[in-house]
Write a structure and sequence with these properties.
By secondary structure, this protein is of the alpha+beta class. It is built from 5 helices and 10 strands; from the N terminus they run βαββαβββαβββααβ. It has 2 domains: 103 residues, Alpha-Beta Plaits, CATH 3.30.70; 133 residues, Alpha-Beta Plaits (2-Layer Sandwich).
């Protein structure tokens, strides 16, 4: 039996999602241990997208296989009772054997949050990146339009990225301001290592008027990570949602921005 789960976690005290060979606290290891305690056998989780150290998630999706027979309520309550306070299971459901949390995903939604004010934040320090310089939102929005569509995003991926192809389709890149909070809503068919944080770094530099808005296009066309400037800090990033074909009935969070996107069959 294959089960899919929805997770949220505060990435502050984690070394990221992926289980490590060396000592260190990871989301995957914590959740696998909690699931195993209920299943009464070891399990291995496959997630929709690995998150780095310090990165949060409100809509991570993963799957595992088990022979254990439990009700959905027993799985949910049992796993949550064995999880640390900074990780929580939101839902669990049985899925067909061909479901794969990573390879069946049609789109992923990340949100990058910037606290834009002259003084450093206290309450939001672990949920957003502080930028003290006033950001020009219109310039950031103009820059974002250069990145929409299918492109070679080599200039926006980490040097250690192991993806076979740097080509991705960026379906949405919305820059919004609400008071002192600026958010980047990023939706794509897939992401490269550090891609969202590197996009955020370029847009922040443009918003701070260090570069004109068409610099984003120049960086993209240059296909060289050295042209892209600073990688934005991890604490501003949150993995919001994953879109799957409707047949799998995977829950979609209310704040997901998948409207108008084809989920496929």
């Amino acid at each position: 039996m294959r089960l899919a789960i929805g997770l949220e976690y505060d990435g502050t005290r984690f070394m990221g999602w992926q289980r490590q060979a060396h000592p260190g606290r990871t989301v995957q290891a914590c959740v696998e241990a909690a699931v195993a305690s209920v299943a009464d056998h070891p399990v291995e989780l496959t997630c929709a997208g690995r998150t780095d150290a310090g990165v949060h998630a409100s809509g991570q999706v993963a799957h595992f296989d088990t022979q254990a027979q439990r009700s959905a309520r027993s799985w949910l309550l049992g796993i949550n009772s064995n999880l640390p306070k900074d990780v929580a299971l939101r839902w669990i459901l049985e899925v067909p054997e061909d479901f794969h949390a990573r390879f069946r995903a049609r789109a992923r939604h990340y949100r990058y949050t910037i606290v834009n004010r002259p003084t450093r934040p206290a309450l939001a320090r672990l949920r957003g990146t502080w930028v003290h310089a006033a950001l020009d939102i219109e310039s950031m929005q103009a820059a974002a339009r250069h990145l929409l569509g299918q492109h070679d995003f080599s200039a926006f991926r980490a040097v250690e990225c192991q993806a076979r192809s740097p080509v991705r389709t960026l379906q949405r890149l919305d820059v919004r301001r609400r008071g002192e909070r600026v958010t980047l809503e990023v939706v794509a068919d897939g992401f490269l290592h550090h891609m969202v944080r590197n996009i955020a770094g370029v847009l922040i530099a443009i918003g701070a008027q260090k570069h004109p808005s068409d610099w984003a296009h120049a960086v993209l066309q240059g296909r060289d990570r050295k042209l892209g400037g600073v990688t934005a800090p991890p604490q501003g990033l949150c993995f919001v949602a994953v879109l799957y074909p409707p047949a799998y009935t995977i829950p979609v969070p209310e704040d997901a921005l998948f409207d108008g996107l084809p989920a496929g069959a």
